[in-house]
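Lecture notes, structural biology module. Today: joint structure prediction for complexes of two components.
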Amino acid sequence: MKVLLVLAHPEPRSFNGALRDAARETLLGRGHEVRESDLYAMAWDPVLGPRTAGTRAHHAAVDGGHECPPYVAQARQRADVAAGTQAPEVVVEQAKLAWADLVIFIFPVWWFGVPAILKGWIDRVFALDVAYGGGRWFDRGVYRGKRALIACTTGAKADRFSAEGLFGPVDWVLHPLRVGTLNFCGFDTLQPFIAWAAGHVSDAARRELLDRWRTRLAGIEHESPQPFRHLADFPSSAMRDHA
Amino acid sequence: MKHLVVLAHPRTGSFTHQVCEQWCGTLRELGHEVVLRDLYAMNFNPVAAPEEAYTRPTAPPPADVQVEMDHLVAADAVHFISPVWWISTPAILKGWLDRVLRGGGFAYGYGPNGPSGTLRDKSSVVFTSSGSTVQEFLDTRKMDAIRVMWKEGTVEFCGMRLLEHVHFGPVGSRARPEALAAYLQQVRETALRHYGSR
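The predicted structure, tokenised, for the full assembly:
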């Protein structure tokens, strides 16, 4: 299997970094191919729009040298894809997605979501007319046949993220990435790997988590995906909207 | 009252900017003081550095974060205006939350009963918009996810009161001009309703 590891943590020696290292080692050991996007190591620019260094140069060319031209995110993406003028670093990441059979996202949960650097990887890489568009979404999605796995750490323990807990079900925290992004673009998702309160538990507990992670990855190709939303189940809006 | 408004949209003149102008304009008309943080115009850096990790809450904040923290402390109300991108905020705003809403007792702290917000006595209104229809957001439960992220996940987590989350959709090419005008009127009425009497 071809596996892309996407890591979003500022500190390589963090537990998130350890999850990435364990994934790389286990997957390579099982004969899989592995590529990586370590967003902090790459100094990824997460800002979609004219601020982005890579896009600003060709915006200036396209828009006649204006420093900050009028900008409509999706219209700009569509024009850039059609003209082949996407930022080079975005094209590289899109090629990794096209290559991968399985994409593993490794990140800490910050403010009920992904860190900004990963949010901006999604904003820029999952571009209109590349990752979706023209009626290609959910079961007609671009990345149908590919799988994605969310591996995250939380600050709080599991009971906080239960239905009765202070924060409510963790499903809501992962919904934007799992359903709103990955399923939206056609990815099947595997059961997320959540390392609860990874920063607050003992070293022994962390080692046990890493062992569980390695064991799981050793058989990852045999797992069944989570339930997937089909457009036909939402006739009131979905079919009409983006078709 | 002092209001801090955090805006995230790359294009001046966009619907999001119009919402912001209406919101700030109405508040000023009502006699309030408004500080606007236009994150794209400021070229705000949304990427939290290693030394900003929540595991090191005693490390001093970087200078650009300190500026935002000072604005936050001085404000009686904090408002967020942004489009919905991938059922979340644009990265530039996500990074403002990541970096400015620091732990260690600034925006929240940990007590014997777990985390508790420390930005008490501040109120908040959140404006979001999307090109999708509201029906599609409801069908796929994206609306719930957005509300949870803003309400429980951010505003209330810090101890602030979320007076209202106002979502507009569809905006952009699928919206009729009269719908957009009605949305802007709704922004004005929201300001009058919550901050009309000082």
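Point to remember: Chain A touches chain B through 49 residues (CB under 8 Å).
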